[in-house]
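Give me the fold.
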Amino acid sequence: MLKATKGSFSDSITIKKTTLKNCLNGIVLAADDKGDYNAEMVSIDQCSFVNVQNNVIHFFRDGYDESTIGGVLTVTNSTFTACGKTEKSGILIKTRGIINVNIKDNTFKNNPIEHVAILWGEKNNHHLNNTLTNSGIIKVEQQQKLNILY
């Protein structure tokens, strides 16, 4: 449905009352370079994701410094059904490096993945009132795993 390219940037992306059905990819906002990302504020509300094969939501910012602004993702009042069948990461909502994530009041049903999301840093990452049926778990890690550069 939506794929951002390297070098593109949006202040805000709002997707509301939208159905994504029978797609290879969903929403891909994943810049390649360290520290880059494609949108500041992303809001997904009252949407239905059905049979989205991979990259259901992939919002990515490389780098490890959580003191800088690094994107805001809000996913609310949405349903995810039979998504992630070819997702190699095993994660339905990928948010690596995004500083502020709120996943609230959603329904996840029959998604063949290990994790709905892996959130890092309890400070600004929240999940509340989500219903998960046969869809893995939402995991919160204290710190993002670092790659050794030398």
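Residues 10-141 form one domain.
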